[in-house]
Amino acid sequence: MRLAVVEFEGFRGAREKVKLRVPRGFLVLSGRNGSGKSTVCDAVEFALTGSVRGSGEHKEKGEGLGDYVWWRGHGRPKEQYVSLELVDDQGESFVIRRTPNGLVGASEAEVVDRVCNGPGELDSPLVRLAQVMMLRDEAITKLSVDLKETDRFDLVRAVLGTDALTRFESRAKELVARTKSVEEKADASYRNARQRVGDLTARLSELRSDTPESEALESARSQLSVLAPTTEDNDAARVSVAETRLSEIRLAVSQLSQAADLLERSQELHAGRSVGTSSEPDAAPAVQVASLKQSLAELEVKRRKCDAQISATGVDSPETVSLNMLHEHGAHLGLRDGACPLCRSELESEEFQTRLKLLADELRQRNSDLTRLVAERAALQTQIAECQDGLRVAEDHARKQEAAARQTQEWFQEAQTICNSHGVDVGDDRQAGRERVRQQVTQLREVAAKLERSLAVVGASVMRGRVVELQRELNGVKKDLAQAEKQLQRATESRAKAKAAYDTIRRMKGELIDERLAELEPLLLDLYQRLRPHCDWREMRYRLRGDVRRMLSFEIGDGLNPNFVFSSGQRRAAGLAFLLSLHVSAEWPKVNALILDDPVQHIDDYRALHLIEVLAAVRRTGRQVICAVEDEPLAKLLARRLRSRAGDEGGMATMVYSSSAGVTVSTQERVPPFSPSVLIHA
């Protein structure tokens, strides 16, 4: 089966429809970077697998390559699809068409059946087919020398078609897991049965040892008939009534103990010991508060009177100020023409001085009275402050006393309610009521103790019938234990057999892969020598290691790892040799085609020429070759070297990109096969 037509629209970089007819022999694609060569390869891969390799790996801003599979440029395409037409050797065509909604006209199983031999033996056959058939630029080293050793082994195993044993290995592994689960369940059942046997045996021994003597049993029955009377004459009824009565007594003891505690706290608070503000429980804080308020009012009146006297007598009063001014002016001016300078009264000098002296004495007396009044006011202010402090203390004490009285009454009422519900009269005397409650609690506890002892004896008698039941149950559990032991033994044997089969398959798979790799190694060596990645190390070998986790590594020279020795171009050439050897060795793909996306990147011209010769040799095996390169002269050289016999003509196509249409096919021409005769007879 080969590729016949690749067609897509609204896909990747192509807005308008692109249709490429692929000749039977080969097709060489050329064009600059971004012209659409990789888009053609993406279309083939997407048609086969429904995704583009690496679309789910790298993420930026929550997006990945998978978000750019369909056209994201300017303008809307008429349709969005990818179509791949395949033709078998009988000329029958098969079309794979995918849209954003998925496959059209066929199912995944049908596609797998048409393009793969024995698809049931492959893990993700369409993805494996794309890996084998397509050598992509960015994936050449990624799928070869850059792979982890375990991943490289898995790739070789899948490509060489050893997945059949892998399927059996997977089934054997599942069988081991299932048998292990069955064994664990059987072991749990066995342990559970053993635990039940032990518990029942201990319970039987306990019941038998607790069986009471007849005299003790009769005494206990009599005790129960007094403490918990019942009309029924059987031990089960006696036990039931006694248990109910015991629960009631325990509840009563708990509630009455609470009531006694409330009465005790009420008594302490009533006595003033819980308030801590007065040593006289019978003091009347309200009377003290009223007395202090009256005293404070009287002091306030005295202070206001004193303030009025100070205001009238003070140096700032108008009268005092006027007298000071008269004295000052009279002393300064003296008599004028034998008369007072202020009132113009005729006075003698001595009389004038006498009157000035009297005025000065009056002012001094005023100052003395003011000093006394200020002292009296300060004393009154001190008394007022002390009275206010005493009033605050008294008011606080009164509030506490009131709260204490209220709390005391609440506790006492709550205790009375509890006691009344149990028939205990507390009375008005808290202390006496508390003693009566405590006596009642003591009596109830004694009754409860007697009930418990009698209940234990009669209850043990009731359990005699339970002994027979437990013995019967124990016999049944012992049978279950024997059955669980047999099941556990069978499950252990089944798991051992499954494990042995699993180990055998793994060993056979390892041996098979060793044999297939031994067959593959000469081809790898031949391709490696043809591509000549390094001038000194001319051979590359496989190396397998690991028993459980199989690992495949490359070696050159004296056990050197080419991944750390070769340059990027040399690693690419070695990777091409590895992938080409896998492609040629794979027998399960029905599609006999090799697609290379710019395989000469990072490879110098010397090794590029060797690659062309290798592709020419691959072409001579009858494989269809599709190769995309950037350099036009290299494309023409490829077209010349890939030409073959009649019926296997080739073709060349040039890709371009325009801002309006996106990726398009600029030219496509046929490359005819070589002429069977080079020389013409004369």
Explain briefly what this protein structure is.
The chain is α/β, with parallel strands linked by helices. The protein is 60% helix and 11% strand.
Termini, distance in Å? 42 Å
The low-confidence runs, each spanning 5 or more residues with pLDDT under 50, are: 273-282
The rough form would be described as flat
**Beta-strand percentage?**
5-15%
Strand segment tally: 13
| Share in helix | 55-70%
CATH architecture of the domain at 2-143 and 587-671: 3-Layer(aba) Sandwich
Q: What topology, given as strand order, has the largest sheet?
A: 7-10-11-3-12-13
CATH topology of the domain at 2-143 and 587-671: Rossmann fold
Structural class by helix and strand composition: alpha/beta
Please give the largest β-sheet: 6 strands, mixed
Distinct helical segment count:
15
- Mean pLDDT reading: 80
> What's the Cα radius of gyration?
57 Å
CATH superfamily of the domain at 2-143 and 587-671: P-loop containing nucleotide triphosphate hydrolases
Q: Give, in order, the helices and strands.
A: EEEHEEEHHEHHHHHHHHEEHHEHEHEE
CATH class descriptor name of the domain at 2-143 and 587-671: Alpha Beta
